What does this fold into?
Amino acid sequence: MSVEPILTCRQLVKRYGRVTALDHCDFDLYPGEILAVIGDNGAGKSTLIKAICGAVIPDSGEIRLGGEVVSFSSPIAAREAGIETVYQTLALSPALSIADNMFLGREPRMPGFMGQWLRATDRGRMARFAREKLNELGLMTIQNIHQPVETLSGGQRQGVAVARAAAFAKRLVIMDEPTAALGVKESRRVLELILDVKKRGLPIILISHNMPHVFEVADRIHIHRLGRRLTVVDPKAVTMSDAVAMMTGAMAPPMQAEAA
Amino acid sequence: MSEATPTGRPAQQEFEKVLAGATTSVASFDEERLTLLQRLQRFLHAYPTTVPFVVLALGLLLGVAVNPHRFTSASNLSTVLTQVMVTGLLGIGQTLVILTAGIDLSIGVIMVISSVVMGRLGVLDGVPTIIAFPLGLLCGAVFGYVNGALVTRLKMPPFIVTLGTLSIIGALITFYSRSETIGMQDIDEQAPFLSLMGDQVAIGDVRVMWGTFLLLIVAAVVWYILTRTAYGRHVYATGDDPEAARLAGIDTDRILLSVYVFAGFIAAIAGWALIGRVGAISPTAGENMNLNSITAVVIGGTSLFGGRGSIIGTLVGALIVGVFRSAVSLAGLDVLWQEFAIGVLIIVAVALDQWIRRVSK
It folds into this structure.
């Protein structure tokens, strides 16, 4: 295979006291793909994801982003490297507007005197940018860019969080259980959003417990078990029940899986 | 299992096929089913400052109804504005802290100790005003820093921290001032600048203290910072949902610390206005001002749970307190009924805030 992975993890180890959450774990993400990460509760998949997004610092092992070794000291460092995360809690500030939330922590200043000396944020640019990004993802059922996020439905909030990640991510997007809190119709909309983001060329790491959703959108499925990568499977070649069986240890992984 | 359709879209799950018949809009609002009360709730949620303005209008109507002639007289308006001046300034500092879901019980004593520091240095110790005055302001900021450092470094609840510093600073005031009051005559001889905010200008027949203009300037500056700068948004975000703010890259501890320093500094400016308002530098003046400032903030619609509120609300809140006090006293009722009315206002304001916040649930 000639394509280089955009993100690789080699031999990641993370211990919490006597519990080993990551046990020499490997991980590969290729450009333009949706890689789902599945695993039973306590398998260590959230620790793996936290190591990638900077929320956890591994005890040993190596993370390479675009071929270069990186070590993130915080989620902010990972964000600056171009990795955006849509947290399960969404990390939106409910009382602030959609535009304010899109730019929270990286507000653009106005040009000239107002921005340089009076530190005024460029509210016009923020509103335009937010509207444009929501439009790109077909989310303009949201009428007013200045309405507080708490007035939006669960699906719309998810949409804002995804739009924010897609707008600022330069390398990849991590999505943690994006459909967990949503109804059937809203889940469908979010799955379409995920595919839209993929179409724009950004690779996505999708963590989900929802097997139908995983099998629908993922290009490859990373099965995590006992703190390490058990195997990577092709959703077209494996059934859902087989994936669940592997994830829970009821079935051994297929031998050729690494090539998937 | 899914297979790719010719358009590249994956096929729907079997159980989702029926969705084709469902509406395509994502969770539109059910506006038509709202009752009048729900509409009001939505409206107030979108425009929370409406409430204090309505209450202020009611207070003015009440005042006019009680005694139309005296209530609207120039001298009464002057009195109300003078009463609002110091409370309003403290309320602005208090708003910053309460927006982060904190509270500053020591803001009143920080104001007093700052005025005492300016006064003793400038009037009794003969330090030039140009040095004594900034030292007084610095004093406020330093005590604010102490509050902020205890809240962020030791992770203590703001209520407890400032309850402690309230006592400590109160004791320091008595110690440093030796319980002496510095009279107007001495101030005017040694450092007239310190009582400048008590000087009056006449606008028509209404006499307005310079401190009232100081209040408006400070309010405008803080309003700008809160609404037009990234820092201001971060103050709101920190009070609204600290975890989300941290994940967005905001250093919430730095914001919290800065807010207490800022509040202490504004309290010191209020201390300057206090000298003019009282006409003396007194270690016992303005003892209850910390509670009055919280009252103004809460009646002005700022939520004690953080993240919601405004400077304009606090200004109106301070005016409401002044107007209601004036109306009650013009009605010839005992002073105790002023306190009674303010108490009712506080409880109604917080109950209203709870109700409005429920709109998103």
In short: The mean pLDDT of chain A is 88. The first strand of chain A starts at residue 7 and ends at 16. Residues 7-94+170-259 of chain A form a domain with the Rossmann fold fold (CATH 3.40.50.300).
